[in-house]
Amino acid sequence: QVQLVESGGGLVQAGGSLTLSCAASGTIFRINTMGWYRQAPGKQRELVATISRGGSTNYADPVEGRFTISRDNAKNTVYLQMNSLKPEDTGVYYCLVASWWGQGTQVTVSS
User: Fold this and answer.
1) Which of 9, 27, 36, 54 has a CB 3.0–4.6 Å from the CB of 105, allowing a cystine?
2) From the centroid of its chain, how far is CA 82?
3) What's the rounded Cα separation, in Å, for the pair 7 and 14?
4) What is the Cα 46 distance to its own chain's centre?
């Protein structure tokens, strides 16, 4: 059993920054891909970014150049640094570690 604890969401003005974190605990073996997804009101959950154990990253086009995903393998933690936030970045952000989902953290960007 794996537990994921997300933190770092909140309310920020457009142009601001937030950093999300997701810490995994429990019976964990080698974790390969970790990632972040988001779901805006009335929309489907979509990919934001992923990172491999070796550090290879992949970003959705809307966040490329503004968001940075990173991980600390020793702490089984994945981060998402979000800069130059836009109102369209508003939504619930979920981390995905192997096949486990975090509980979600709300990010609201005001215009």
Assistant:
1) 9
2) 9
3) 20
4) 11
How many other CB atoms sit within 10 Å of the CB of residue 7?
12
Distance set, CA 75 to CA 23, 27, 97, 108 (Å): 7, 13, 13, 27
CA dist., res. 77 & res. 9, Å (int): 16
Give me the amino acid identity at 18: L
**Phi, psi (degrees; rounded to nearest 5) at 86:** -120, 155
Residue among 6, 15, 16, 66 at smallest CA distance from 36: 6
